[in-house]
């Protein structure tokens, strides 16, 4: 027997169990007791059993493949989301294929067509910056492929979503600046056509309003992609405003880091002259000088949650699961770039 491929049937005969019981035990099905599962796995190891997943998937008409569409892999947030998706999918027996839209609507549409042809089990996607009409994703619903959006989500297509509360996160970031003594607070904002960045602007303004501070439109600098270069350009423009801002809330860490460098070159002290808050908690934020106060958007957890949600919908496809929205809690990480502490 050791010279030929060991099958589930061989394991079943050795242990005097049914083939279905062996299969469930190998997949840690909760209906099988821990003792039986342990015995099955022990024998499988001893005999060198390896599952023929390709044949199994063909019989079940399953590919065990998930498609993921991200705007840009080289952005820290999306790479961490991907990592969370991949870790969870691998543990649950699924392969992950990743595509970049590079924030292009045309490319995003092409990727959705590729994924439909590849017969993936489900799709996780974040909309590109060019996407204002996302109805090209509706085809997944028509052909019964589960779909989960994360972060930048669709309002046009019925689907589950995993998001953060961008309004609340921006509100807390801005209020933190106010609590450190800032009164003339600027905002380096994201793309003005994108919902998550609109929400961050609203949260920023709401915090100012709560504390009877003016929301001066001259202190809001919009960007297209929140790039490092755009952050530097916005910071230079803020240096021409009178009076100078004494605090800046940035819609990502890239722009916050470049803004700090511009302010330091202008001989302004951080945080004494200008305090700065970022968004996303990039690794560099904890090692730069000064270290950056930021919002931790828990990207890895967002990826894990999106994968769990999608796989549950894949495996319970016959249960007519309703679409749901999961909101991931964010954390304000206070570091040196706002360490004024006037309230003691």
From TrEMBL:
PROSITE patterns (alphabetical): HTH_LACI_2
Domain HTH lacI-type: 6-60
CDD domains xref list: HTH_LacI (cd01392), PBP1_LacI_sugar_binding-like (cd06267)
Pfam families assigned to the protein according to its UniProt record, in alphabetical order: LacI (PF00356), Peripla_BP_1 (PF00532)
Keywords: DNA-binding, Transcription, Transcription regulation
Keyword Transmembrane helix listed: no
Protein name as it appears in the record: LacI family transcriptional regulator
Lineage: Bacteria, Pseudomonadati, Bacteroidota, Chitinophagia, Chitinophagales
């Amino acid at each position: 027997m050791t010279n030929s491929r060991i099958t589930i049937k061989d394991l079943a005969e050795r242990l005097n169990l049914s083939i279905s019981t062996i299969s469930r035990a190998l997949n840690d099905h909760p209906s099988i007791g821990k003792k039986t599962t342990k015995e099955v796995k022990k024998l499988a190891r001893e005999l060198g059993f390896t599952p023929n997943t390709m044949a199994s998937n063909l019989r079940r008409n399953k590919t065990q493949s998930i498609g993921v569409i991200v705007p840009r892999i080289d952005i820290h947030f999306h790479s961490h989301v991907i990592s969370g998706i991949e870790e969870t999918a691998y543990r649950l027996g699924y392969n992950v294929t990743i595509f970049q839209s590079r924030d292009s609507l045309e490319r995003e549409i092409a990727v959705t067509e590729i994924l439909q042809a590849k017969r993936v089990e489900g799709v996780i996607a974040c909309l590109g910056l060019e996407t204002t009409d996302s109805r090209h994703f509706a085809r997944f619903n028509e052909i019964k492929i589960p779909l989960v959006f994360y972060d930048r989500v669709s309002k046009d297509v019925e689907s589950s979503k995993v998001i953060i509360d961008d309004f609340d996160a921006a509100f807390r970031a801005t209020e933190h600046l106010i609590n450190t003594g800032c009164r003339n607070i600027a905002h380096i904002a994201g793309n003005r056509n994108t919902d998550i960045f609109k929400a961050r602007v609203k949260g920023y303004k709401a915090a100012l309003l709560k504390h009877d501070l003016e929301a001066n439109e001259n202190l809001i600098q919009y960007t297209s992609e929140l790039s490092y270069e755009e952050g530097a350009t916005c910071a230079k423009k803020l240096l021409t405003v009178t009076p100078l801002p004494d605090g800046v809330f940035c819609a990502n860490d890239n722009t916050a880091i470049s803004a700090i460098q511009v302010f330091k070159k202008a001989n302004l002290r951080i945080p004494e002259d200008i305090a700065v808050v970022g968004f996303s908690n990039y690794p560099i934020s904890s090692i730069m000088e000064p270290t950056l106060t930021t919002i931790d958007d828990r990207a890895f957890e967002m990826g894990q949650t999106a994968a769990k949600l999608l796989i549950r919908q894949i495996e319970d496809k016959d249960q007519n699961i309703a679409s749901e929205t999961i909101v991931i809690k964010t954390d304000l990480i206070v570091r040196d770039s706002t360490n004024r502490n006037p309230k003691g």
